Amino acid sequence: MSYRILIYTYNLLFCAFFATALLGCGQGGGEESFRSANSPSMTVVKLRVVIAGNAISEDLLHQMLEISRSRFLNMGIALELAELWADEPEPDEMLELESFWKRQSYDYWKSRWDSPESEALLTIVYTRPLISNGVTYYGGWSEGECRPLGGFALIHTKPGHLLKNALADSHEKGHLLGASHDQSLDPPSIMHPDAGAYLGETEDAEFSPKSRKEIQRCIENIN
């Protein structure tokens, strides 16, 4: 069975709202709870991770998280796994590509895991690949840019493929941490809208200078 990349982001630009409304999440106020006690210059983003069915193994998940951590760490962002959950897979019909474009899989998972209790966390759900006419797709969907508190993303995974899953994962986290799509091909970066086609199994995929500035601006606004 062949696989293709599909990365889509519905940008609603909620940054201004979340920068003001969620600063008080956690004890001690927004700034104190969002900064690392061990390194005051390091911004901590806490992750709530959900694995749907057998979409990915826990071992593969931790390898993906290590790749994500390394990509954001040099921007002063520490990704911290705060919660790890398992859930039953969605109904098979929601994996049809047509259902994806109608937001059915995204809305299904968002309704299950996007709750008031998650407003201090970045929630990522990893589920099975999409399928259309025998072709299987992997990629992700998130809403908004600059939502390190209360953000939500859905990743349709490619079973057993560490680097491709990590690419889709970093792409969606990039959006939720402030990065828009970057069309530049010199070289193509993680935030290219067709990143999978250009980077695929590339080990040294990076954020472009443009994306790095956007992410750092988002974090500065939150802090």
State the gist of this model:
By secondary structure, this protein is of the alpha/beta class. The chain has helices at residues 15-21, 30-34, 58-73, 97-101, 104-113, 162-176, 195-199, 209-222, and strands at residues 3-10, 43-52, 77-87, 122-127, 130-132, 135-143, 152-156. The chain has a single domain (3-222), classed as Collagenase (Catalytic Domain) (3-Layer(aba) Sandwich).
Q: Tell me the series of helices and strands, N- to C-terminal.
A: EHHEHEHHEEEEHHH
CATH architecture: 3-Layer(aba) Sandwich
The coarse silhouette is globular
Total individual domains: 1
CATH superfamily: Collagenase (Catalytic Domain)
Q: Using the CA coordinates, give the radius of gyration.
A: 16 Å
Proportion of strand residues: 15-25%
Spans with pLDDT under 50 lasting ≥5 residues? 1-37
Largest sheet features = 7 strands, mixed
> What value does the average pLDDT take?
81
Termini separation (Å)? 46 Å
Instruction: Quickly count the helices.
Output: 8
Secondary structure category: alpha/beta
Helical coverage, percent range: 25-40%
Say how many strands there are.
Answer: 7
CATH class placement: Alpha Beta
Could you tell me the CATH topology label.
Collagenase (Catalytic Domain)
Descriptive notes:
The protein has helices at residues 15-21, 30-34, 58-73, 97-101, 104-113, 162-176, 195-199, 209-222; strands at 3-10, 43-52, 77-87, 122-127, 130-132, 135-143, 152-156. It has 223 residues and is of the alpha/beta class. Strands 1, 2, 3, 4, 5, 6 and 7 form a seven-stranded mixed beta sheet that branches. A hairpin with a 2-residue loop joins strand 5 and strand 6 (135-143). Helix 3 crosses helix 6 (162-176).
